[in-house]
Design a protein that fits this description.
alpha/beta; single chain; 242 residues; 34% helix; 24% strand; Purple Acid Phosphatase, chain A, domain 2; five-stranded mixed β-sheet
Length: 242
């Protein structure tokens, strides 16, 4: 079993280093992995109509569909910047998880989530998150032409970043660590989170079983991914030599 976990590319339609590295990396995955898990904030914003997505995302979306057609399962976990993804991707048999979920493979029980709700003290952000994901907001945005939504999406993205601002990388990482410890007590073998932009991989033995805690880095400055290969987790660079 070979699986890849990535998060926090924050693609916005502009070509930058992270976009180029990610396109190259995804191209290398075609037929080379059993599953790829995209753990939130892959896009810096997302609104779509039935057959229409933001033009700046067409190349990366087509790359994901190529990966799917080549035999690799693709799953999205929605983040604080990209949600309502199911409307577009589920028609291609790509799974979309609005929140955290349990993933079972190779006899291991994983908890995977973007991680933006771990800090339950950030009540302003949690309120804003509920508003944006509400049925009312969903209905409203469906009535607005996509070009208008795409123009205002950068404003919404900035507001989301403001309310969900990571006040301290060490602070949120510490909260995530405590969150993982609770999941381990519940019987999970691994906890994989994003959001923090702070790549972390820690392992220890609890009750005779190896426990793995991972925070995925971003594709803005770290360009890393988590690889699960035949029972082992490894954090690796997604940047190959030119």
């Amino acid at each position: 079993m070979k699986a890849v976990f990535i998060s926090d590319a924050h693609l916005n339609g502009c070509t930058f280093d992270g976009h180029r590295y990610l396109m190259r990396f995804l191209d290398s995955l075609k037929g080379g992995a059993d599953e790829i898990f995209i753990v939130g904030d892959f896009f810096d914003f997302w609104f779509s109509e039935k057959n229409s997505i933001y033009p700046g995302f067409c190349d990366i979306v087509e790359k994901l569909l190529e990966i799917k057609r080549a035999g690799t399962d693709v799953s999205f976990f929605e983040g604080n910047h990209d949600f309502f993804l199911g409307d577009y991707f589920e028609r291609y048999d790509i799974r979309v998880f609005p929140d955290g979920a349990t993933i079972d493979f190779d006899g291991k029980k994983l908890f995977v989530s973007h991680g933006d709700t771990v800090d339950d003290s950030n009540t302003a952000y949690l309120f804003w998150r509920r508003v944006l994901r509400s049925r009312l907001f969903y209905a409203i945005q469906k009535k607005i032409p996509s070009p208008i939504l795409w123009r205002v999406s950068s404003v919404i993205s900035r507001m989301s970043r403001s309310f969900g601002k990571i006040r301290s990388s060490n602070g949120i990482a510490g909260r995530m660590n405590m969150f993982a410890e609770e999941r381990f007590k519940e019987g999970f073998d691994a906890v994989v989170l994003g959001h923090c932009h702070c790549p972390t991989l820690e392992q220890h033995v609890l009750n005779g079983r190896l426990k793995t805690f991972a925070i995925l880095g971003d594709w803005i400055s770290h360009y890393v991914y988590l690889l699960y290969d035949d029972g082992e987790f490894v954090m690796k660079s997604g940047v190959s030599p030119d």
